[in-house]
Design brief:
- There is one protein chain.
- This protein has a single domain, classed as NAD(P)-binding Rossmann-like Domain (Rossmann fold).
- Helices cover 42% and strands 14% of the residues.
- The chain has seven helices and seven strands, in the order E-H-E-H-E-H-E-H-E-H-E-H-H-E.
- The chain has a seven-stranded parallel beta sheet with strand order 3-2-1-4-5-6-7, sandwiched between helices.
- Helix 1 runs parallel beside helix 2 and helix 1 packs across helix 7 (237-244).
- It is globular.
Length: 265
C-alpha cells in the first residue's frame, strides 16, 4: 500500500450540498483533488456554481451541477435522481448547505424565521440523508459527513451573530449524526460530522448584519479562539478527506471540531 492510498478517492462519487461558494466549494475541491467525481447543489448563486464546476473539472474528474433548494422535498428528490442517473452510485455525501438569519433573542424571533432555519439546516439535512442512504444501501457502503458548527457543541456568546434557531439546528445535527451512525452501521454506512469554528466565509453568512458590524464580530471571535486567528477554509480539507476515505474506516458517529480551540473553554 502506497502512503496515500488510504486517502485515495479515485473513481468514487461525492455529492456536496451548497457547493457554489465558501466552505462548500472547499469540500468540492478536496474531493476532486483526491480523484472523486463531484456533484454539488446550489440554490441561487449561479455564477458561483459555474466557478465551482470549472474548478472541479480542472482536476480531471466529472462535475455535476444541480440547482436545488434543500428545504424543498421535490427538489431534493430530483437532485438525487439526477445524480443516480448520471453516476449510478454515491460514495460520499457532504451535507453542507445551511442558512442563518438576523441575530436576535428568542422572544424577538418570529416563527417564520425559526421555520426557515429548521427547514434548511435540519429538515433539509434529513431529506438529503434519506435520499442518499437509499443509494448507499444498494452498495452496502458509504460515508456521510454532516456540517454542524462549534455553535452546535456549546451555547453561543450573545454578542455573536448565530441566531437561536441556528444554534438549535446545529445541535440537532449532532444528534442526527449519532442516531444515523447507529442505525446504518450494519449496512456499511458511516456517518460523522465536522464542526467548524471561526472561518471568514461563515461570519454573518446569510444573516442580516451591517458590514461595519462584521469587523467587530470578527475581532470578538478572535478573542474567543485560543489560536488567536480565523481558520483558512483549506484547513478543513484534511478532515473532510479523512472522513470520506478508507482512512476512517473504523470511525462513525463522531463530531470533529475544527475551531482553533474555541470549544475548549
Amino acid at each position: 500500500m502506497r502512503k496515500n492510498d488510504l486517502f485515495d478517492l479515485s473513481g468514487r462519487v461525492s455529492l456536496v450540498t451548497g457547493g457554489s461558494s465558501g466552505l462548500g466549494r472547499t469540500f468540492c475541491e478536496a474531493m476532486a483533488e483526491q480523484g472523486s467525481h463531484v456533484a454539488f447543489s446550489y440554490n441561487s448563486n449561479e455564477q458561483g456554481a459555474r466557478e465551482t464546476e470549472a474548478m472541479i473539472k480542472q482536476h480531471g474528474v466529472k462535475a455535476l451541477t444541480v440547482k436545488a433548494d434543500v428545504s424543498r422535498p421535490g427538489e431534493v428528490k430530483a437532485m438525487f435522481l439526477k445524480l443516480d442517473q448520471e453516476f449510478g452510485k454515491l460514495d460520499v455525501l457532504i451535507n453542507n448547505a445551511g442558512v442563518d438569519i438576523r441575530p436576535t433573542r428568542i422572544h424577538e424571533m418570529s416563527l417564520d424565521e425559526w421555520n426557515r432555519i429548521i427547514a434548511t439546516n435540519l429538515t433539509g439535512m434529513v431529506m438529503c440523508l434519506q435520499e442518499g442512504i437509499k443509494i448507499m444501501l444498494r452498495q452496502k457502503k458509504g460515508s456521510i459527513i454532516n456540517l454542524t458548527s462549534a455553535a452546535g457543541l456549546v451555547g453561543s456568546d450573545p454578542r455573536l451573530p448565530p441566531s437561536p434557531g441556528y444554534v438549535t439546528s446545529k445541535h440537532g445535527v449532532v444528534g442526527l449524526t449519532k442516531q444515523a451512525a447507529l442505525q446504518y452501521v450494519a449496512d456499511g454506512i458511516r456517518v460523522n460530522a465536522i464542526a467548524p469554528g471561526s472561518f471568514p466565509t461563515r461570519i454573518g453568512r446569510n444573516a442580516d448584519i451591517p458590514e461595519e458590524k462584521l469587523g467587530e464580530i470578527g475581532s470578538l471571535l478572535l478573542s474567543l479562539t485560543p489560536m488567536g486567528r480565523h481558520g483558512d477554509p483549506a484547513e478543513l480539507k484534511g478532515i473532510a478527506i479523512y472522513l470520506a476515505s478508507d482512512a476512517s474506516s473504523f470511525v462513525t458517529g463522531t463530531v470533529s471540531p475544527v475551531d482553533g480551540g474555541f470549544t475548549c473553554w
